[in-house]
Amino acid sequence: MWRLRWQTLGLAAVSLGLALETLGFLVGWLRQQRRRRHRPPRREVLFFPSQVTCTEALLQAQRQGGPQGAAPAPAAAGPDCRRSPGATAGAATSAAVAAAQTTVSSAASSCLCPLPHGESSLSRLLQYVLSARSSLELCLFAFSNPQLGRAVHLLHQQGVRIRVVTDCDYMALNGSQIGRLRKAGIQVRHDQGAGYMHHKFAIVDKKMLITGSLNWTTQAIQNNRENVLIVEDEEVIGKTIYSVGSLGQFEDRPLILNPML
Amino acid sequence: MWRLRWQTLGLAAVSLGLALETLGFLVGWLRQQRRRRHRPPRREVLFFPSQVTCTEALLQAQRQGGPQGAAPAPAAAGPDCRRSPGATAGAATSAAVAAAQTTVSSAASSCLCPLPHGESSLSRLLQYVLSARSSLELCLFAFSNPQLGRAVHLLHQQGVRIRVVTDCDYMALNGSQIGRLRKAGIQVRHDQGAGYMHHKFAIVDKKMLITGSLNWTTQAIQNNRENVLIVEDEEVIGKTIYSVGSLGQFEDRPLILNPML
Predict the structure, then answer these.
(1) Which residue of chain B comes nearest to A8, CA vs CA?
(2) Which PANTHER family does the UniProt record give (chains A, B) (predicted)?
């Protein structure tokens, strides 16, 4: 009787111990798998001036395999591979734009311009912008770079909802992309305050903030010392998106545009 | 004999099971405590234009209870409470500058100027800058705001190692703080490239990055639509600090200053 009881008790204790250990191990493993699935939030810093590289492949790849079946870009937005004084870039690699890069590598061979076809700070910025799938908010003091203009245009053609807030004075300057974007049907608002609308940020799909000192002009991209931070932070992006709405008042205020455009 | 063996085996199994469970619990608890001690990295976004508030209390508090026994500020850097067109701020609260705020609240009563003594985007920016304990790296296109100039001056007097990189053209403009800081013995370098040194960031104690669209000028602070992001990110800050060194070449290159200063 006693022998049987001790045997049963011993076996039960061993089983319980093993079961609890196995359970603990399983819970730990499942948590680890879950953590692996949810990649850490993206953060990167791009430095300018950017090396001058050909970005045609990126834009062609977007036209060919865009998020929602891209329509061909208009002729006016054709190749624009210009050479300018050399510059350095400090971009680091990440898995952020890997999908775009694979498409780009096959399209790269199609451009025969003499510019280098490698990666640069501008090409990475373009890839981040082109990664938009549903929305793109732009709050830009100055926007005259043709490559970035074409990227925004392409996204608009592919059904990405784009809202632009810009500065009243700077949007009418020579070479500004704002007029072209507005003519393509993109919502554009300009600030009416006394000071400048001096922000320089973009929000991709309400998930990724691209912000820094860089105005989206070729002069700044190719010549100035600039930085652009790319972060995924729900709280910061929530506040920043609110500021886009309050600046542009897209829903409540009628379209206000500089008569020069 | 058998009875004794089963009894021993049972007791050993129970003890082992309990010991393993206790160990697992202890390891989990210790990890939780460690996570609690390491607060999440700081991230905040400040919006400008800033409400015009009195920042005298902040600067007085720094003078009185600075990190390493502050010397009195020179008379030229006295109170500077000016009124200007009203503005709004979008600063959010955080525990980041709680220590400074407690000292400030007692010092606030000492300033009798008619400006509001509450918090604003400028006051929060000042608090972040004044939180420097060992080093402050400034990479600023334009720096003319007197309150921020006094803050940097105070930190220098208190032994904080300050390095400034600025733009060649803008540092000689009327009202620039760069000349005053250099005369106080702060290391200043300016970029010699063809483009602008257009960065607008500060790095506090090699741990906190303050970056965005804001030039440190009163015009921008009080009138422009601007944003400033405050982040603690080791990787991003590492890369950004490297850029300060490579821009200014503090260690290798002799002091280069605009002759107008």
Answers:
(1) B10
(2) CARDIOLIPIN HYDROLASE (PTHR43856), MITOCHONDRIAL CARDIOLIPIN HYDROLASE (PTHR43856:SF1)
Residue A181 is part of which domain span? Answer: 39-50+120-250
Residue A18: inside a domain, yes or no? no
Decide if B99 contacts B67 (C-beta within 8 A).
no
Q: Is residue A95 in a domain?
A: no
Give the pLDDT of residue A168: 83
Can you give the pLDDT at residue A113? Answer: 85
Choose, from B80, B205, B206, B233, the residue flagged as catalytic: B205
CATH of the domain at A156: 3.30.870.10
| pLDDT bracket for residue B161 (50, 70, 90) | very high
Are the Cβ atoms of B195 and A49 closer than 8 angstroms?
yes
B70 confidence band (pLDDT: 50, 70, 90): very low
Task: Using CB atoms, pick whichever of B10, B44, B200 lies closest to residue A6.
Answer: B10
Q: How many domains does chain B have?
A: 1
pLDDT score of A69 more than 70: no
Long-range contacts of B118-121 (CB under 8 A, 24+ apart): B118/B51, B118/B53, B119/B53, B119/B89, B119/B91, B120/B50, B120/B51, B120/B52, B120/B53, B120/B89, B120/B91, B121/B46, B121/B47, B121/B48, B121/B49, B121/B50, B121/B51, B121/B89, B121/B90, B121/B91, B121/B221, B121/B228
- Residue B112, domain member (yes or no): no
- Residues of A with a catalytic annotation lie at 198, 200, 205
Confidence label for A81 from pLDDT (cuts 50, 70 and 90): very low
State the pTM of this model: 0.72
State yes or no: ipTM above 0.90. Answer: no
Q: Is residue B19 part of a domain?
A: no
